[in-house]
Amino acid sequence: MQHSTIKPKVTQGMRCSEESTPMGMSIGLKYHALMSRFEPVCGAEGTKIALRARLWPSSSFQNRAERFSKWTQSRDEPVLENRQVTKFPLYLQEVFTLITELMSVGTELLLGEITDTNAAFLANDLKGRGVTLHFKTTVGDNLTRVVSTLKRALERSDLVILGGGLGPTDDDLTREAIAEVLGEIPLIDEVYLEQLRGFFLSRGRTFPEQNVKQAWILPSGEALPNPVGTAPGWLVRPQADPYAGKIIIALPGPPREMKPMWLEQAIPRLNLPQSGFYHRTFRTFGIGESHIAEKLGELTQMSNPSVATYARRDGVHVRVAALSDTLEEAKVLAGPVEKTVQMALEGYVYGADDQTLPKILGRLLGQAGQTLSVLESMTGGLVLDELSNESGSSAWLQGGAVAYTQEAKARFGVGLEDESSWVSAEAALEMALKAKAFFGSDWAISTTGVAGPETLEGKPIGTLFVGIAGPNGAKAFETVGAGDRRTLKERSSISALGLFWRVLLNPGVLEAPFEGQA
Question: In the chain, what are the helix, strand and coil shares in percent, each to the nearest 5?
Answer without folding.
Answer: 35, 25, 40
